[in-house]
Amino acid sequence: xxxxxxxxxxxxxxxxxxxxxxxxxxxxxxxxxxxxxxxxxxxxxxxxxxxxxxxxxxxxxxxxxxxxxxxxxxxxxxxxxxxxxxxxxxxxxxxxxxxxxxxxxxxxxxxxxxxxxxxxxxxxxxxxxxxxxxxxxxxxxxxxxxxxxxxxxxxxxxxxxxxxxxxxxxxxxxxxxxxxxxxxxxxxxxxxxxxxxxxxxxxxxxxxxxxxxxxxxxxxxxxxxxxxxxxxxxxxxxxxxxxxxxxxxxxxxxxxxxxxxxxxxxxxxxxxxxxxxxxxxxxxxxxxxxxxxxxxxxxxxxxxxxxxxxxxxxxxxxxxxxxxxxxxxxxxxxxxxxxxxxxxxxxxxxxxxxxxxxxxxxxxxxxxxxxxxxxxxxxxxxxxxxxxxxxxxxxxxxxxxxxxxxxxxxxxxxxxxxxxxxxxxxxxxxxxxxxxxxxxxxxxxxxxxxxxxxxxxxxxxxxxxxxxxxxxxxxxxxxxxxxxxx
Length: 486
Ligand code: AMP
Ligand code: MG
Description:
With about 475 residues, the chain is of the alpha+beta class. Among the domains are: about 5-185, no CATH class; about 340-425, no CATH class. About 40% of the residues lie in helices and about 15% in strands. It is built from 16 helices and 13 strands. Strands 1, 3, 7, 8, 9, 10 and 11 form a seven-stranded antiparallel sheet that branches. A two-stranded antiparallel ribbon has the order 2-4. A two-stranded antiparallel sheet has the order 5-6. Helix 6 runs parallel beside helix 8 (about 315-320), helix 10 packs antiparallel against helix 13 and helix 15 (about 430-440) packs antiparallel against helix 16. It is globular, with a radius of gyration of 23 Å. It binds adenosine monophosphate and magnesium ion. It comes from Pseudomonas xionganensis. This is Protein nucleotidyltransferase YdiU.
């Protein structure tokens, strides 16, 4: 274990130079207070949980202090936002403080979000509000606990610094950890500005630091693109299987590591709804739940376009054709696990699709359905769950297919329950839960957000005494409107 002041830095991205990022110092926020920290994320830096109690912790993560070896930089990137190309975005309110190497030799970017204005702030104030910082923290750490690839969050720091959104709010900072902050939009920036040498340098950097195994392939750049595509397909499969709606799948929010990245108005589905739009500002539903699959494919095509100076277009096209089959295979694997099936059958895709169609419009809670399906023997569980469906004849036909399918598999109900509970969370980050703890935190009470974080860190475990966190949303919590403003 290390103390905060003992971290080892090796700032590889900063060394790429001025074409890639600009040096900027964080602008501190007033009267910083630690809202919460994640012991699991701290462990990635070899930090003991007690380090969060030190005074210097809140100071470092509110921009008041800096390590001697840190080299804070704002990265430049571009991106397709809602389908239209913005030629220059960049870190408008976040800074890459540096890269920390842990005792296992793993590198972690320390990115301080809400750190003040940068050359890329455009009209923005460089700040992040408490509400959105808490939302990013909770989602990052919860997705990781669910086994879904994601950036991580070390802590949130609140302040008395005022910021204006639709109303007066206060500034906060979230310290994000990721093995890389390179986005699809980084490649687009160098492609569309015709800086092809820098494009190559960026690809070399990503290969060296994050995909060294691709060096052994005949065409390392192509191998890199395939790997990004495969990881992205895997990530989207998780989102679709677990009901996660990202909300702003612009190419600048797509990580080159295929991890969930840049949290805005995201949501986990309560009732299953393939057409759910979680972003109140997404008028056309471009980023609706079911559109996430074709949009990921579209974003990969945008990345492929940016890589055309390095890779033959025909090879890129052939790789893009692999996306849907890869996604589908990952997704079916996950859904089989959720249904408690350990063998594969050609009819499984139809079994899953039919279930989702029945859920659509029936107001069936997407998380609790699978959890309860594993609670008791199949016939018993189905008899209980049947009550939630509108199309009873349809449900009975599906249930009969499902029973046949489970009967063909060996194993006791105890095994089945253990397997299914390991794949089906009881606790999920519902919007109404986030809303409740945000309101408490805004009033200065951090107890509820800390407790929610602890519950969501063990989403698959029964947690006696905390069952209220597993409940479906109350009426007021069903249709919360979350906008892009953050
Ligand atoms: P996001 O919606 O957080 O993914 O941000 C999209 C772009 O807008 C990124 O370049 C951000 O850095 C920038 N941005 C968002 N909010 C602000 C802000 N309050 N001040 C400056 N830049 C911002
Ligand atoms: Mg972003």
